């Protein structure tokens, strides 16, 4: 299949990237990060979570973050909502899209949201219905689609099953998430070949963590399957609090460098993203793990020193 000519990059750094930080990141820093990302041109930013602060303390200030950001016209600001209480918060915060997050692995579902896959779908049903009634977009995220930290192998049929259940709830978009970054290109082909039979290809996304260094290869494999929505985290920030050892999402700068090289349109300014990656890494005292980001920063600094 020919590669897509344009892709949507969803920046998930403010949520997936920061949720696992041990030290509380000040609300003002989160807001500045999102504002910088908005200015760089992202069509979609995952900005916050409306989850239990006991489970994910870092995301406790979601309402303040959403109230403080400057919204770029036309951009979608998404938030995670595990239940109706989270949905009420999302609605009050004027979120453009809510994300319900389930798993293709029973063990991960229990660890992450404290219920079985079937129970999670029951819990999401009224959330999805309320979102439909209010005209809010719904995204469904399928964790552990390429492997699970507790159960190991996850059958492709389990992924297809959850995608079908999310489709029945009326999801506008569905994420195939490699929570712990164990997937390789062959598995990516197999999973997308299977899920595109039950949900439209153009509304499926790839959400790859880079724990095993496979994320860019996996994105390329997904592009070959005609997938045109990818999630990425600026400076490669992140990790899941309920998936020990999992590192951040693929770094946005690296994905943009790849897309630019392939001549695939994103509408995003790489240099501004590199600057945003430098800003947040410095602000929270964390190493910037984007290869392209670090290379472009070093190049800009050596050019500035020479001039
Ligand atoms: P629970 O303990 O089973 O449920 O948690 P509960 O109803 O007993 O609630 C526990 C406490 O949280 C109660 O407070 C509730 O009021 C409160 P208490 O009475 O003890 O004082 N609570 C809430 N507070 C604020 N907002 C809410 C909310 N709901 C309940 N919405 C629950 C069940 C789902 C709430 C919990 O397990 C939870 O919040 N989990 C979230 C986990 C999470 O955010 N994980 C990370 C995001 S997923 C991810 O990173 C994967 C992804 O990136 C894709 C991938 O890579 O795989 C998306
Ligand atoms: Mg994730």
From TrEMBL:
Signal peptide: none annotated. Keywords: Lyase, Metal-binding. Residues 7-274 form the Pyruvate carboxyltransferase domain. This is hydroxymethylglutaryl-CoA lyase. GO terms for molecular function: lyase activity. Its EC number is 4.1.3.4. Pathway: Metabolic intermediate metabolism; (S)-3-hydroxy-3-methylglutaryl-CoA degradation; acetoacetate from (S)-3-hydroxy-3-methylglutaryl-CoA: step 1/1. Belongs to the HMG-CoA lyase family. It catalyses: (3S)-3-hydroxy-3-methylglutaryl-CoA = acetoacetate + acetyl-CoA. It comes from the Bacteria. It comes from Paraburkholderia guartelaensis.
